[in-house]
Design goal:
There is one protein chain. By secondary structure, this protein is of the alpha/beta class. Helices cover 40% and strands 14% of the residues. The protein has two domains: 138 residues, Aspartate Aminotransferase, domain 1 (Alpha-Beta Complex), CATH 3.90.1150; 233 residues, Type I PLP-dependent aspartate aminotransferase-like (Major domain) (Aspartate Aminotransferase, domain 2), CATH 3.40.640. The strands form three sheets. It has a seven-stranded mixed sheet with strand order 2-8-7-6-5-3-4, sandwiched between helices. The protein has a four-stranded antiparallel sheet with strand order 9-10-13-12. Strand 5, helix 7 and strand 6 form a beta-alpha-beta unit. The longest helix is centred in the C-terminal third of the chain and has 28 residues. It is globular, with a radius of gyration of 21 Å. The mean pLDDT is 97.
C-alpha cells in the first residue's frame, strides 16, 4: 500500500498557507511542519485550560488529563512504560541533565564511548565528563563513507565502559545505524546505551522497547509537534541514576531528569502527534488495533514513501563530479537527509535554491566533528536537503530541476 499523499498533506495547514504557496520545504531536519491535531490541542489548551494543572477544579483537571494522555499514548507507540517517557524543553537540555546524572554516578577511571558522527547535542555533554576523570573513547567514522564500523566498537568495549552514546541516524551522513545490534553488544559488555533519535524519529516513531536502548531521545518539533524534547529512560537505569529534580519528585521517574517545570500546553498538545498517527493508520486501514501496531504500520508507510522519493535524488548526486554526497548512495538504509559538499558554500547554494522556490539549509548543522572527520571544508559547510513523508513527487521534481539550474 502506498501513502495517500493528498490525505497526508490535508493534515498540515502549511500546505494551504498562501504565503508558502509554491515553496517546497527541504529543511525538515531542522524542524517539521506541525500537524493540525497538535495545533488544535494547543489552541484548545490556551483557550480553555491555561491554568495550573492537577488542581481541584474542572479546567485544571482537564489540563492535567491531557498532559497525562500525551505521555500514555506516546509511550505506548514507542513500546515503553508510561513513566519511562518524559518531556523537557529540548533534547539538548535533556541530554545535558542526563550527563550530570552520569557525572555523579560514575567514578574516575570509568569510560564512556561517543562517536564523531553525532550532532553536538549528543556528544558534547558526554565528552565533558572527562572533567570528572571519566575516560572518553571516540568511536570514529570512516572518513570516506561516514560509516560506523561495529568491529571498531568492539575494540573500544571493555569492563570499564559504562555508557555507549551514538545516533540512530546522523543529521549529515544519513545512514541508519543498527540500534538493536549495537545495544546488544554494549549490554554484553556491561554498558548502557544512549541513542540520539532526533534525526530518525521524523521518519516514523521506532519501537524503542524492541531495540533495547536504555535511553532514547528525540524532538517533537521535528516530529510534527510542539517544541519539546522527548526522552525515554528505562526504569532500571532511571532508578539507579541520581535524581536531578526536586527531592520530593524523586519517586516519580518521569520527573527525575526534568528539573524545570514542564510547558503544560506543549506537553498536552503532544498528544496530537498520536492523533495524527492514528488518523493515518485509520485512513489507510493498516496496523493492529494497538498503539504500537498502528505506530509500526505508519512508520512503514512513511519509510516506503520516503525511499521512493529519495533514490532519484541520491542517483543525481552520485552522478555529479562537482558534488560529494555524504553517506550511502542507496535509500534503503538511510533517512532522506542528504548533505552535499560542493565547490560553493552550502549556505550560498541554499540561497540560490530559494530563488527557485526551494527552502533548504547550508552550514555545519552542529555536526562539526562529523564534517571534519570526512574532510569537509567548514568554511563552506554543506548544502543539506531533508524531507519527510509529506513531501510530494511534484516537490521532488521541483528540487531536481532547481539543483540542475543552480549547479
Amino acid at each position: 500500500m502506498q501513502l495517500d499523499i493528498d490525505f497526508v498533506r490535508s493534515q498540515f495547514p502549511a500546505f494551504a498557507e498562501p504565503s508558502l504557496e509554491g515553496q517546497a520545504f527541504f529543511e525538515n531536519a531542522g524542524g517539521s511542519y506541525t500537524c493540525q491535531p497538535v495545533i488544535d490541542r494547543l489552541t484548545r489548551f490556551y483557550h480553555q485550560r491555561k491554568v495550573q494543572p492537577y488542581g481541584p477544579y474542572a479546567a485544571s483537571q482537564l489540563g492535567g488529563a491531557e498532559m497525562d494522555e500525551a505521555r500514555v499514548r506516546l509511550a505506548a507507540i514507542l513500546g515503553v512504560e508510561t513513566d519511562e517517557l518524559s518531556f523537557g524543553p529540548s533534547t539538548t537540555q535533556n541530554t545535558y541533565v542526563l550527563a550530570q546524572a552520569f557525572r555523579q554516578w560514575m567514578k574516575p577511571g570509568d569510560a564512556i564511548i561517543v562517536t564523531n558522527q553525532d550532532h553536538e547535542a549528543n556528544t558534547g555533554p558526554w565528552r565533558r565528563l572527562a572533567e570528572a576523570g571519566v575516560e572518553v573513547r571516540e568511536w570514529q567514522i570512516d572518513p570516506e563513507s561516514g560509516h560506523l564500523d561495529l568491529e571498531k566498537l568492539e575494540d573500544l568495549l571493555d569492563d570499564d565502559v559504562r555508557l555507549v552514546c551514538f545516533p540512530h541516524c546522523s543529521n549529515v551522513v544519513g545512514e541508519i545505524n543498527p540500534v538493536a545490534e549495537i545495544s546488544a553488544r554494549a549490554h554484553a559488555a556491561g554498558a548502557f546505551v544512549c541513542v540520539d533519535g532526533v534525526s530518525y524519529a521524523p521518519h516514523g516513531l521506532p519501537d524503542v522497547g524492541a531495540m533495547g536502548a536504555d535511553i532514547y531521545l528525540f524532538s517533537s518539533y521535528k516530529t510534527y509537534g510542539p517544541h519539546q524534547g522527548i526522552m525515554v529512560i528505562r526504569r532500571a537505569l532511571g532508578r539507579m541514576l541520581p535524581n536531578q529534580a526536586h527531592y520530593f519528585n524523586a519517586d516519580t521517574l518521569y520527573k527525575r531528569f526534568t528539573p524545570a517545570g514542564p510547558d503544560h500546553a506543549q506537553v498536552a498538545a503532544s498528544a496530537g502527534m498520536a492523533d495524527y498517527i492514528d488518523a493515518l493508520a485509520a485512513h489507510h486501514g493498516v496496523g493492529e488495533d494497538t498503539p504500537g501496531g498502528r505506530g509500526e504500520a505508519v512508520h512503514d508507510l512513511m519509510r516506503a514513501h520516503e525511499q521512493r522519493l529519495l533514490q532519484p535524488l541520491l542517483d543525481w548526486a552520485a552522478s555529479r563530479n562537482s558534488v560529494r554526497l555524504l553517506g550511502p548512495e542507496t535509500a534503503e538504509n538511510r533517512a532522506p537527509t542528504v548533505a552535499l559538499a560542493c565547490e560553493k558554500p552550502g549556505y550560498a547554494l541554499a540561497e540560490a535554491l530559494g530563488e527557485h522556490g526551494i527552502m533548504a539549509g547550508g552550514g555545519d548543522f552542529y555536526a562539526v566533528r562529523a564534517l571534519e572527520a570526512q574532510g569537509v571544508d567548514l568554511d563552506k559547510g554543506v548544502l543539506r536537503l531533508s524531507f519527510v513523508h509529506y513531501t510530494s513527487q511534484v516537490e521532488m521534481d521541483q528540487l531536481l530541476n532547481a539543483l540542475e539550474a543552480v549547479l
